[in-house]
Amino acid sequence: MKKITIKVNLNNNSYPIVIGKNILKNTGPEIKRIVPKANKFLLITDKNIPKSYIRSILSSIKSKNKYVFTLSAGEKSKNMNFTNLILKKLFKYNFNRDDCVIALGGGVIGDLSGFASSIFKRGVNFVQIPTTLLAQVDSSIGGKTGINSSEGKNMIGTFYQPKLVLIDPITLKSLPHRHLIAGYAEILKYALIMNTKFFSWLEKNSHSIINLTDINLVMHAIKESCKSKAIVVQKDEKEKNLRAILNFGHTFAHAFEAVKKYSNDLIHGEAVLYGMMIASSLSVKMKMLNI
């Protein structure tokens, strides 16, 4: 399957989602095409990301001013302390708004990097390179950024759209199977709330997606999920009404995650899966959903 481009149309905040096998090696040219004035690049990632991904991206960027900031993996990095560390790096290297922050990792890295980017000098260019299935189909798209606080998950944040989302499905091969299932929960969410035809397709191909036995089928699932989210975000960027449907299962999910103290005992996609099951069951009992 060739490179796929999906446009998120938001007037001055529009951006492409580019999906392609082994596209990491083209990161530099893809970014240059979107933000040609960028001279400095800060790649933010975590300790679980293979070094080969980092090398591939850095070698594709034709600038001497490129830096890497590696964080601990997991929700416990998604806080104000790590936000300040990112801001200090940007000030240290004298970044301006024409330069570029690149988030390489899952939802935590994307949310944290996006939030820091949005408040640095009122907004520096920001690129998402999601490496988990959940981030590729959901959290990297739509401009929601945020960090956790003592008051709850994502209680501090902004709406700040990336300039580009670059998705390489090959990165999924480095994921534990558990994280593939967690990402599949968000794919299933789109099918349930928006696309019955896609749901029927998933019934036939879920095994291939979860086990990565056919990358072309995985790319199709990612594409359909991204298209669904783009449609909703284009109609309701700031979540005033329609975009709330994307929170299907999340009310319960966030409560479960809080009880588990955002630990690895329950990762986000798993919580969403349980949340969708409970929300659906409750809706049936309240006669709000027919089965």
UniProtKB/TrEMBL annotation:
Its EC number is 4.2.3.4. GO terms for biological process: amino acid biosynthetic process; aromatic amino acid family biosynthetic process; chorismate biosynthetic process. GO terms for cellular component: cytoplasm. It is an enzyme of class 4 (lyase). InterPro entries: Dehydroquinate_synthase (IPR050071), DHQ_synth_AroB (IPR016037), DHQS/DOIS_N (IPR030960), DHQS_C (IPR056179). Keywords: Amino-acid biosynthesis, Aromatic amino acid biosynthesis, Lyase, Metal-binding, NAD, Nucleotide-binding, Zinc. Pathway: Metabolic intermediate biosynthesis; chorismate biosynthesis; chorismate from D-erythrose 4-phosphate and phosphoenolpyruvate: step 2/7. Residues 183-289 form the 3-dehydroquinate synthase C-terminal domain. It holds the Pfam family DHQS_C. Its cofactor is Co(2+); NAD(+); Zn(2+). It catalyses: 7-phospho-2-dehydro-3-deoxy-D-arabino-heptonate = 3-dehydroquinate + phosphate. One of its GO terms (molecular function) is metal ion binding. Residues 69-181 form the 3-dehydroquinate synthase N-terminal domain. Catalyzes the conversion of 3-deoxy-D-arabino-heptulosonate 7-phosphate (DAHP) to dehydroquinate (DHQ). This is 3-dehydroquinate synthase. The lineage of its organism: Bacteria, Pseudomonadati, Pseudomonadota, Alphaproteobacteria, Candidatus Pelagibacterales. The gene is aroB.
